[in-house]
Amino acid sequence: MLKRLTPLFFSLSFVLCFSFVSCGRFAGEKEEAEEALFYEERKFEARVAPPEPKRTAAAADMEARAETTAPAIEERKRVYSGYAKIRVDSVEKRKNELFRIAERSGGYVESALNNTVVIRVPAESFKEIFQMILGLGEVLEKREETFDVTEYFRDLETRISILRQTRTRLYTLLEKTNDVEERVKILREIRRLTEEIENIEGNLRLIEEQIAFSRITLELVSRLPLEEQIRDRIPFPWISELDPLYVSLPDLKGSIELDLGERFAVFTKDEAFRAESARGIRVRVGTVRNRPEGNDEFWQKAIMYHLEPHYRSAEKFEAGPMRAVFFTSKDVEAFFYLVGVHVRKTHIYVVEVFFPDEASMRESKEKILSALEQMRIR
Fold it and tell me: How far apart are the C-alpha atoms of 153 and 209, rounded to whole Å?
């Protein structure tokens, strides 16, 4: 069952107690200015928030009946995705065919890296188009996933509504005071709320895009691919199956705490952890059995040794308790792929981060590494 990663940090109590928050945020300001803001807000609240009228027993009974008899008509919000590895005679020919399928369906090509093509198609046509694509060659592997993001989407909408109401009240307070220090405090809080609102709006747009257009990832394998033969010789199946563009480790033992900030939408965090930003950065966490038994350094060296030939460069580093390798692809317009490992008892926790281009990597790499250093496994 899908759980929410980001709880509702704001409630109506935050709105009514803004002065206390302001005191905490702006330590060192004069007490007179803080008290003036406190009493000014209380006066404002007394005028704009009249007490609720008392409900009669009959009215309460009617409301209870209405709630029990009202039909549940809310439409669930779901994100669909599919992956397939297909053996074909001509990779280039099938790539061009996939481009045409995406265009004809009303979708688009999200990326085309080496022999992997990612397309977006309208959600209502996902199953039909996915089955059509499976007929393009010999299906070696396929997976379909469905994420229910209804609760997460609803929470974001509720949160942004509270933030906007809070900001509106602060604008009203701003108009009512001429005290310079109070105005500075209020403007700082308005600026902070505006940034948070913009981040949540970006997440909502991202989720709506994911709901409207399903992602299909196709890995095209030539009949006699040299690289495929090299991967087949890797003695650790989970390493040979690691893929920057699609989930290769769908399970998660236990749960994790990983705060990537407001710029990332989290689609699931129980069976596995999946998050994505509006820039196309993808973060995944899954687990695999620690077989043969090895420590963090052993698995870091194994990943480096077996995957380095497939990339232009590979760099080992540490991120908190995690050992990781950072890969740069061989493409002209390179993508970047981070794989980190941490052994916990009988399982290996594997973190994968995909950066679609250099700009997104430079903008977010350090922030993601900082979050990984703080990651908690439960």
Answer: 12
Asked if residues 2 and 151 have their Cβ atoms less than 8 Å apart, the reply is: yes
How many angstroms separate the first and last alpha carbons of the chain? 18
pLDDT at 253: 87
**Inter-residue contact 361 to 327 (CB < 8 Å):** no
- pLDDT for 334 equals 87
Question: What residues contact residue 21 under an 8 Å CB cut-off, 6+ apart?
Answer: 14, 189
Structure tokens at 208: 């709506």
Maximum distance among all Cα pairs of the chain, rounded to whole angstroms: 79
User: C-alpha angle 147/337/346, rounded to 5°?
Assistant: 70
SS3 272: coil
Please provide residue 265's backbone torsions phi and psi, each rounded to the nearest 5 degrees: -95, 130
Position 64 scores a pLDDT of: 55
Domain definitions of the chain by residue range? 78-224, 225-378
Placement of tokens 């309208």 in the chain: 122
Mark the ranges of the chain whose per-residue pLDDT is less than 70.
1-74, 223-232, 269-270
d(CA 328, CA 335): 6
Beta bridge partners of 198: none
How far CA 277 is from CA of 22, 74, 218, 229, 313, in Å, comes to 30, 27, 21, 34, 25
Rg of the chain taking only CA atoms, in angstroms: 26
Distance, CA of 45 to CA of 18 (rounded, Å): 11
Write the CATH number of the domain with boundaries 225-378.
3.40.1000.10
CB 375 within 8 A of CB 261: no
- pTM beyond 0.70: the answer is no
Q: What is the pLDDT of residue 99?
A: 93
